[in-house]
């Protein structure tokens, strides 16, 4: 090979290994071996696959949303809905059968306890009652006579036992006859308003036994049964203040009257009954729907983190804390959760900022540009 065709590396007269060493040393003079970001960024981005991916991408600050960690009431209220009912309701059932001679009520009518609603023909039952009364009186007279004979030694104890049994039987038959006569008259068991009336209940119609003649609702005091989940039931206790909202009337104030000791096996929810005095009159009726907010029995404020800020990574709960415009992944411990809020047990302090958006693509150490959405204890 002629000297004219040799590489320029040799034409200078400088050995090749010297030039290579100089180039390598010059590269080592820059942090990170000459690559943008430095050795510390390489060590950091090599920690996880997602951070290594970020290291190979554009380093432009990522726009995210963040909240400031603060304390607040963990839960402001327990909310549920249900159907309004009277605090007392009664379904009137016919216990006799026959042709109705009288019907004294109609839908919507106000009735008082003991008022006559309807009546069958009762002539046969009244005659039977008179016979039973006479038989019972006769048996008592005979019993008194035998008792005196026993006291005088003129009758035995066996005679007395026989007459006592006959008197008891006669008295029982008298009670049954009384009940049969009473059943011919259908009366209101409670005071209130008639919510339902069977279509067969009219004068001259034959009515069998066991018919739901009417449903009476006492609307002077109302109640509503709610279904509360297991995460919220611990905040509900008897006597707690409740606000009831209806479409037909202004909001009413009531209280929790009872809380179920166990859950419904079908739904897993717990029954809670709220009662209140009806100040809306006829505008509120049994069967209407209502929304209820119950004041919780919260003893103190807690440090709150939005559940939108929480991630599960390798079996741990983590958040991204924003420090010096950089996202830093941190493990946290959370306690109770209700809705979109969770209680911070460990890992965060009041005043720190945590990311609530772009979490799936955010990496530890990534530069960010955060927009503050507010304080966590005040967000709903």
Strands, total number: 22
The number of domains is 3
Question: How would you sum up the global shape?
Answer: elongated
Strand content: 35-45%
- Cα Rg: 43 Å
Helix and strand run: HHHHEEEEEEHHEEEEEEEEEEEEEEEE
Euclidean distance between termini CA atoms: 83 Å
**Sequence stretches where pLDDT stays below 50 over 5 or more residues:** 1-14, 16-47
> What helical percentage do the residues reach?
10-25%
Secondary structure class reads alpha+beta
For the biggest sheet, the summary is: 6 strands, antiparallel, barrel
Oligomeric state of this protein: single chain
What's the number of helices?
Answer: 6
Strand order within the widest sheet?
A: 3-10-13-12-11-14
Describe what this molecule looks like in 3D:
This protein has 380 residues and is an alpha+beta fold. The protein folds into 3 domains: 56-75 and 300-375, conserved putative lor/sdh protein from methanococcus maripaludis s2 fold (Beta Barrel), CATH 2.40.420; 78-87 and 218-294, Efflux pump adaptor protein, beta barrel domain (Elongation Factor Tu (Ef-tu), domain 3, Beta Barrel), CATH 2.40.30.170; 89-212, no CATH class. 23% of the residues lie in helices and 38% in strands. The protein is built from 6 helices and 22 strands. The protein has helices at 8-11, 16-28, 38-45, 49-56, 123-152, 157-182; strands spanning 62-68, 70-72, 78-93, 98-103, 110-111, 116-120, 185-187, 192-197, 206-207, 212-228, 241-245, 252-263, 270-277, 289-294, 302-306, 311-313, 316-323, 326-331, 333-338, 341-346, 353-355, 366-375. The chain has a 6-stranded antiparallel β-barrel. A 5-stranded mixed barrel has the order 1-21-17-18-22. It has a 4-stranded antiparallel β-sheet with strand order 2-15-20-19, with no helix packed on it. Strand 12 (252-263) and strand 13 (270-277) form a beta hairpin. Helix 3 packs across helix 4 (49-56). The longest helix has 30 residues, at 123-152. It starts with 7 loop residues before the first helix and ends in a 5-residue tail after the last strand.
């Amino acid at each position: 090979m002629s000297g004219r065709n040799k590489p320029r590396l040799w034409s200078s007269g400088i050995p090749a290994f010297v030039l290579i060493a100089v180039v390598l040393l010059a590269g080592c003079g820059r942090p990170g071996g000459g690559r943008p970001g430095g050795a510390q960024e390489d060590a950091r981005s090599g920690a996880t696959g997602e951070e290594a991916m970020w290291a190979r991408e554009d380093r432009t600050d990522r726009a995210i949303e963040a909240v400031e960690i603060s304390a607040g009431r963990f839960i402001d209220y327990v909310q549920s809905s249900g159907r309004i009912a009277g605090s007392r309701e009664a379904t009137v059932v016919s216990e006799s059968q026959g042709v109705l001679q009288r019907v004294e009520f109609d839908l919507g009518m106000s009735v008082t306890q003991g008022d006559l609603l309807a009546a069958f023909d009762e002539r046969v039952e009244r005659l039977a009652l008179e016979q039973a009364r006479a038989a019972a009186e006769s048996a008592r007279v005979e019993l008194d006579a035998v008792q005196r004979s026993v006291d005088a030694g003129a009758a035995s104890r066996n005679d007395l036992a026989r007459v006592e049994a006959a008197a008891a039987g006669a008295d029982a038959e008298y009670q049954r006859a009384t009940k049969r006569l009473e059943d011919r008259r259908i009366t209101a068991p409670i005071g209130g308003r008639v919510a339902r009336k069977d279509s067969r209940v009219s004068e001259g119609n034959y009515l069998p036994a066991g018919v739901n003649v009417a449903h009476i609702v006492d609307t002077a005091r109302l109640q509503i049964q709610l279904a509360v989940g297991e995460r919220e039931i611990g905040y509900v206790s008897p006597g707690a203040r409740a606000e009831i909202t209806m479409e037909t009337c202004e909001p009413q104030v009531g209280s929790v009257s009872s809380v179920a000791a166990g859950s419904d096996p079908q739904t897993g929810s717990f029954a809670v009954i709220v009662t209140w005095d009806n100040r809306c009159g006829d505008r509120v009726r049994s069967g209407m729907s209502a929304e209820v907010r119950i004041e919780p029995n919260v003893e103190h404020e807690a440090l709150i983190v939005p559940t939108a800020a929480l991630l599960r990574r390798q079996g741990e709960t983590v958040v991204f804390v924003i420090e010096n415009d950089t996202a830093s992944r941190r493990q946290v411990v959370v306690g109770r959760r209700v809705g979109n809020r969770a209680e911070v047990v460990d890992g965060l302090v009041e005043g720190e900022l945590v990311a609530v958006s772009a979490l799936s693509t955010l990496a530890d150490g990534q530069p960010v540009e955060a927009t503050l959405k507010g304080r966590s204890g005040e967000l709903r």
